[in-house]
Amino acid sequence: MTANRQIVLADLPKGKLAPENFRLTETERGSPGEGEVLLKILYVSLDAANRAWMQGATYRSALQAGDVMAGGALAEVIDSKSDRLAVGDLVFADTGWQEYAVLPAKRLAKVPRIEPLTHLLSVYGVAGLTAYFGLLECGAPKACETVVVSAAAGSVGSLVGQIAKLKGCRVVGIAGGAAKCQLLKDRFGFDEAVDYKAGDLRKALKAACPDGIDVYFDNVGGDVLEACLFGMNTHGRIACCGAVSQYDGAAPAYGPRGVPGLIVTKRLTLRGFIVSDFDDKRDQAMKNLQAWVASGQLKVQEDVLEGLESLPGALIGLLAGENVGKRMVRVA
């Protein structure tokens, strides 16, 4: 038999995610049946949403103890019993954390073989498309407006800020630590950066955004969302992408305070979204992203770790803010 190593969710975390919540197991690789393909996983994407899936159903079903840990991956077809996909094709799929997966071909979409392959998980993958659609479709920024993005040194945030700059906006990033804040300005071209760990965030935002906030791209929720709400201009727009501050550990004692009144008096628009909402616009988005990368206008930051066994620590570290740019693990 050909072995297939898997990482299983040993039990659901009751507090912060820890290495003991995972278990490395080994099973048979399996073979595709009619209409199926056998995939070899190349790179696994690490996302804050991985942790949210342990808390309950979201846009996908909740994870249970004993499940192979869920996660999206770039994979190569190594055996096919379908005319939809051939050996050598690349796909992005919810394979889970394992070395091989057998999946129905009809659920998979072929992706182009673009070098470096890692870009298919970062700027040309869910991260890039999330940044593109969340900012441009939900935030709808106009030239000269002020755009603020949280988790700005992360996979999505670093791209949001750069796209906003391409659209002629003034961009302020919120990140954790002086080093990340400096990187936002030096590498990604942000106008200002605010360290949320450094003290009074609301006061720091007011100093960085003297004319208020027109668009806020929210990746974290919680206290950061609250601080930005108080700085929003009338008719401001908030693109609600994630709430990583509330994924790992106990639920917060309260949500952002004063929200109903602020939304009404400032006539704010808050819009949640996922990438698949904009499938009809994906081709144009990809063309624009590729053009910006090729011209050097969009810089791609990736954080690639090695080996299947590193996945639990990689996710725990991502939730703690270790990464800069898109974090992924190379499996093969």
Structural overview:
This protein is an alpha/beta fold. The protein folds into two domains: about 5-120 and about 300-330, Medium-chain alcohol dehydrogenases, catalytic domain (Quinone Oxidoreductase, Chain A, domain 1, Alpha-Beta Complex); about 125-275, NAD(P)-binding Rossmann-like Domain (Rossmann fold, 3-Layer(aba) Sandwich). Helix content is about 25%, strand content about 25%. Strands 3, 4, 5, 6, 7, 14 and 15 form a seven-stranded mixed beta sheet that branches. Strand 11 (about 215-220), helix 6 and strand 12 form a beta-alpha-beta unit. The model has no long low-confidence stretch (mean pLDDT about 95).
Please identify which CATH superfamily of the largest domain we are dealing with: Medium-chain alcohol dehydrogenases, catalytic domain
Write the CATH fold name of the largest domain: Quinone Oxidoreductase, Chain A, domain 1
Structurally, how many domains make up the residues?
2
Please bin the fraction of helical residues. Answer: 25-40%
Mean pLDDT: 94
Total E-strand runs: 15
Termini separation:
19 Å
Q: What CATH architecture of the largest domain would you give?
A: Alpha-Beta Complex
Using only C-alpha atoms, the radius of gyration works out to 20 Å
CATH class identity of the largest domain: Alpha Beta
Could you describe the largest sheet, including whether it forms a barrel? Answer: 7 strands, mixed
Low-confidence stretches: none
Please report which band the strand proportion falls in: under 5%, 5-15%, 15-25%, 25-35%, 35-45% or over 45%.
25-35%
In N-to-C order, the SSE pattern is EEEHEEEEHEHEHEHEHEHEHEHE
**Helices and strands: which structural class?**
alpha/beta
Number of helical segments with 4 or more residues: 9
Shape: globular
